[in-house]
Amino acid sequence: MFGLDTGLTILLLCCIIATLAFEFINGFHDTANAVATVIYTNTLKPNVAVVWSGVWNFIGVNVGGIAVAIGIVNLLPIEALVDPNIYHVVALILALVLTAIIWNLGTWYFGIPCSSSHTLIGSIFGVSMAYMLLPGSTAVELNWKKIEDVGLSLLASPIFGFGLALLLMYILQKVVKNKLIFREPPKDKKPPLWIRSILVLTCTSVSFSHGSNDGQKGVGLLMIILIGIVPAHFALDHSKSPEQLLKNVQNIEITLKQANVASFDTKNTAEYIKITSRIDSLQAILSNVKSFSEIKDNKHFEVRKDILLIAKKADAFIAINKDKGFDKERVKTIKSDIKSMKEYTEYSPWWVILMISLSLGLGTMVGWKRIVVTIGEKIGKSHLTYAQGATAEIIAASTIGASTWLGLPVSTTHVLSSGIAGSMVAGKGKNNLQMKTVKNIAIAWLVTLPVTILMSGVLFLLLRLILA
After folding, report:
1. Average pLDDT, integer, range 433-446
2. pTM, whole model, 2 decimals?
């Protein structure tokens, strides 16, 4: 398989299966975020609700793009996947996948709404930190800008969820004259058609948004596996032309040479030399190449690394030195070429997206009850009303959709749980919350990152010793 020996083929299959298992668990762990409201308002029967949610999760993964997936891939240091000992790469991948699975299953078992996003990000950060502690890895740099963006997204989203749900409920209470939507739903009685339609629509929106954001995390994780273990096939998009890539690189070189190098300080001069050396390296590999299959297997990751470093450093370089030979037209040109270059590394095969969407969609249809009970019964003291359910889901779908558009992972669980809490407070004040459940969710929110960072880091070092 992909030219690997039997042992590596088995390990590759194990990594892929583990990733599909993570996404399957993600499905039934997060299903409650979409279906709790339609179940507890008697809008849909539980079996119908989870199948409906599963279908829309599947659709969300397939049409949601790959911006979040690429963000996940770029969280790992580039060097971590270039280890000449492929078993070290396998150890890294298994450590982060197993950590994510163990923590997700544990919190699901105890019925605690916990973020799969926090879990995966913590696992990636943990193996990255452990890798940096290895001898000879002192020069390795984490993508701190991406980590900062992701961290801010994960930390801020629950606060937005709570505040916006609180605000929307207050507005609804002032504006809506029909008070039916603020009453506890009659037991075993379906709501009026217009209310049912709204709740089904919000359930659909959350399911679709969850697929388009959380599904991409699985896509990113699977791409890390494929890039790390079989870089000759997946480090670059082989459907594209290396000749066009060479043109982009040459255009960037021409533009950079028009800068006023004499005006650079020592730091900028050093950065300029780093960029141009990468450009020279990439041009040497791509010269007279018509197809990526003509490049030696051990050079594919080198091309990928050159692309990523040129794109990152050139973009930052021209931003700092706009007044030193880079007019608006030149800046526009170089940014266009950088964007074209990144398309060679920012991709995912259709079958990867299909496998993840199937795993997430099928996972959505099972194991949902534990978290549904927590969200529907244990966050607020009063029964979930139509307005509270719709409010929480509108806020969740909007927040997740915006995060997907920005290419940032966000916690569906925490956004919706905090939205439910906000809607409960808007109804009857803070005394309407079951503080034990709220504390458990908050503790899980706070400890997930440090626990998964530590667990994945230690597991990576152990597996590295075992598989060496």
Report:
1. 71
2. 0.83
